[in-house]
TrEMBL record:
The lineage of its organism: Bacteria, Pseudomonadati, Bacteroidota, Flavobacteriia, Flavobacteriales. Pfam families: PadR (PF03551). It comes from the Bacteria. Residues 15-86 form the Transcription regulator PadR N-terminal domain. This is PadR family transcriptional regulator. SUPFAM superfamilies: Winged helix' DNA-binding domain.
């Protein structure tokens, strides 16, 4: 996708949606899943991912589980109850936004 700036505002929602579907994930796993789902079109850098994860954790939307894997510490992120509700709210807002953009960009697509 040519303009990754469009994704920047959606990064938190993307993370929340993945965690809703997968249960819990660690950072690198999140970046690879996004890359896989977008067929390599969207690549989330560590510099963008970890600040977003820390912000979501600070907002009480994520819990962190620490596990030792192959003598390394791995942090797994998962949704809190508040995070589950927020994910639903954000996805609903995103769907409304997409519908509005479709109306503006190509009114013939009118999907009600």
């Amino acid at each position: 996708m040519g303009n990754s700036k469009l994704y920047k505002g959606s990064l938190n929602t993307i993370i929340l949606k993945l965690l809703e579907e997968q249960g819990k994930m660690y950072g690198y796993e999140i970046t690879q899943k996004v890359k896989e789902l977008t067929k390599g079109e969207l690549k989330i850098t560590e510099g963008a991912l970890y600040p977003a994860l820390h912000k979501l954790e600070a907002e009480g939307l994520l819990d962190v589980e620490v596990a030792k894997v192959d003598n390394r510490i791995r942090k797994y992120y998962k949704l809190t109850k508040k995070g589950v509700k927020e994910t639903g709210d954000r996805l609903s807002e995103l769907e409304d936004f997409i519908r509005s953009m479709q109306q503006l960009v190509n009114p013939k697509w009118n999907i009600s």
